[in-house]
Design a protein that fits this description.
With 79 residues, the chain is an all-alpha fold. Helices cover 67% and strands 0% of the residues. Helix 1 crosses helix 2 and helix 1 packs across helix 3.
């Protein structure tokens, strides 16, 4: 996957979050979002999403914000 505009990245992240929002265990849902983004998004996309969260996260679902915060805590090489 290549990088995209932040609106498109937020939409994609929210789509992932919506998919995992059906999971009754919140921690499992967050882990699902984190794992999907880390596995399928390139580092530039992840960095843009984290930067957007740090700038307020406008438009991001709460589940996606939690997941992006966890991604932000990963070693710099993995973000």
């Amino acid at each position: 996957m290549s990088g995209g505009g932040i609106d498109q990245l937020v939409k994609m992240a929210n789509d992932i979050g919506t998919f995992f929002s059906g999971e009754p265990d919140h921690d499992v849902a967050v882990a699902g979002v984190v794992n999907h983004i880390q596995k399928f998004w390139d580092p530039r996309m992840r960095r843009k999403l984290v930067a957007h969260l740090q700038a307020g996260g406008h438009g991001m679902l709460p589940l996606v914000k939690v997941a992006a915060a966890q991604i932000a805590q990963t070693p710099a090489a993995a973000v």
